[in-house]
Amino acid sequence: xxxxxxxxxxxxxxxxxxxxxxxxxxxxxxxxxxxxxxxxxxxxxxxxxxxxxxxxxxxxxxxxxxxxxxxxxxxxxxxxxxxxxxxxxxxxxxxxxxxxxxxxxxxxxxxxxxxxxxxxxxxxxxxxx
Length: 129
Hints:
Layout: H1 2-20, E1 24-26, H2 29-53, H3 55-60, H4 65-80, E2 84-86, H5 89-110
Antiparallel strand pairs: 1-2
Keywords: Membrane, Transmembrane, Transmembrane helix
Organism: Nitrosospira briensis
Protein name: Putative membrane protein
């Protein structure tokens, strides 16, 4: 069930990003869902290998090279999936940032639990001394 939720969040993020950036387009719902599935696979399997191979670049750039890796994963998926087009690297770069942020915020609402990171303490009445 959690897999389907992550897949849906990624698909929703890709769909929203296609409205924000005119350089990203999908020809059908099938290409959108396949792109979300393959992006999840690329982030789970290929991305960690690339991160390990580029540790020196990541350290020199204080971690900013990870943004480049995210953009490259998005471009890789766009070359594999027919019907998913990205106009260039910079579109993929900024779109990957937005996809990450959207996935984070939607995931916070979907995967609520007792041990979540953002705990809001209950409001107290009166003055605490």
